[in-house]
Write a structure and sequence with these properties.
The protein has two domains: 143 residues, Fructose-1,6-Bisphosphatase, Chain A, domain 1, CATH 3.30.540; 110 residues, D-Maltodextrin-Binding Protein, domain 2. The protein is 36% helix and 27% strand. It is built from nine helices and 14 strands. The strands form three sheets. The chain has a seven-stranded mixed β-sheet, with helices on both faces. The termini are far apart.
Length: 263
């Protein structure tokens, strides 16, 4: 079964290339691929392990975060290929480097521009989230449904990734923050915060950048669990999107409530 096979691939890559280095990275194993953006030997080795094994399952292009960093032309497959894999071999690299457990290994399968399956593996917590379009979301083999959150702002708990926002957007966040029950900057790991939303720890999460490896898996899992994932203008998310602003919430009512303040 494809779902189980991909889960094994991600888990085995984490066990071989990532987990042994958790809280044990050497200084020479950490690099800055762009200002403020870290990458480690664990990211690269895990992606090198995952890529050929996914292609052995479904022989289509693989858009991995590290491969795309080296050759951005790979992103063209999201628009041009009938099907494509997307891989984030180590989401939350800065957390991993700092020894914090908020990191994940993620993958998604895209067909005709739409995410049809997604995986988020959190090895530090022994958690696996799998989903397939039309078939639901599963956590460690048990189907999960996210109950709708309130439309009352004072009852909503949320997070927003503001690092790449322009000053006016950041100002809107600062003005909105006191109106929510809880509001914070997020865990610096999309995979971690997507699963927190699914598990009921958050009611909404606003991301600014929409890189496919960060969001193709999570948006599929959130929507299949009963949540809502749309751009701030109301458009549905597609992995080839280049627009800014992606709001995920526990249902339409909470999505609209949060959007009124955050957009």
């Amino acid at each position: 079964m494809l779902i189980d096979a991909v889960t094994r691939i991600l888990q085995e890559a984490a066990e071989a290339a990532i987990a042994p280095r958790f809280r044990g990275l050497a200084e020479a194993e950490v690099f800055e691929k762009s200002p403020g953006q870290l990458v480690t030997v664990a990211d690269r080795e895990a992606e090198d392990m995952i890529t050929p094994r996914l292609q052995a399952l479904v022989d289509v292009p693989v858009v991995g975060e590290e491969a795309a960093a080296a050759d951005p032309r790979l992103l063209g497959a999201l628009r041009e290929a009938p099907a494509v894999w997307v891989v984030d071999p180590l989401d939350g690299t800065a957390n991993f480097v700092a020894g914090r457990p908020e990191w994940a290994v993620m993958a998604a399968l895209i067909r005709d521009g739409v995410t049809v399956a997604g995986w988020i593996v959190r090895p530090a917590d022994d958690l696996v989230y799998e989903g397939e379009k039309g078939s639901g979301t599963w956590r460690n083999g048990i189907r999960v449904r996210r109950a709708p959150a309130s439309a009352r702002l004072t009852e909503l708990r949320g997070a927003a990734y503001a690092r790449f926002m322009d000053p006016s957007a950041k100002a809107r966040l600062r003005a909105a923050a006191p109106l929510f029950a809880e509001f914070g900057p997020g865990a610096s790991c999309a995979g971690f915060d997507y699963t927190r939303l699914i598990d009921g720890e958050l009611d909404f999460v606003l991301f600014w950048r929409t890189l496919p490896w960060d969001h193709a898996p999570g948006t599929l899992l959130v929507t299949e669990a009963g949540g809502t994932a749309r751009h701030l203008d109301g458009a549905e998310y597609r992995p080839a999107d280049t627009g800014r602003g992606l709001l995920n919430a526990a249902g339409d009512q909470s999505w609209h409530a949060a959007r009124q303040l955050l957009s």
